[in-house]
Specification:
mainly beta, Immunoglobulin-like, 4-stranded antiparallel β-sheet, 43% strand
Amino acid sequence: MNKIKLVPRAGIPLLVAAVLGVAFGAPAAASGPYFDECSTGGYRVEVWAVADPGFYWSTVHYEFFGGGDESNMNIRIYNDDNDLLWSWNSPDNREPGMTYSQPVRRSNGALIPAHAGDRADFTAIFDRPIWSDPRCTATAIVD
């Protein structure tokens, strides 16, 4: 898992996505990234996914804004028929202000085909000591 501090923020997410896509062996033609965000209870998360329709998924990325240092992210990728293609759950140690990246690969390392209409659902669970943890879901859709 890579942690990258985004300072300054302007334009850096695209650069990070491109660099990490190359580092994790993404196809050279990878397109996107596809962005979304969600918020709840004063907390927010930004998400983006890199995929090339007709080729493969590359990486998924996210950054928490708020919540404690035990937040976590659950990511699911579905095709346009709503079939689950890939799932991943982060450990309960995600910190606000850090960008996290995860390569999209099957357990055997195989690439996962990407098609227009596929979507990545990112469910953010924001850590709040003592209180229940608020959550929200952002969806990045491949077009």
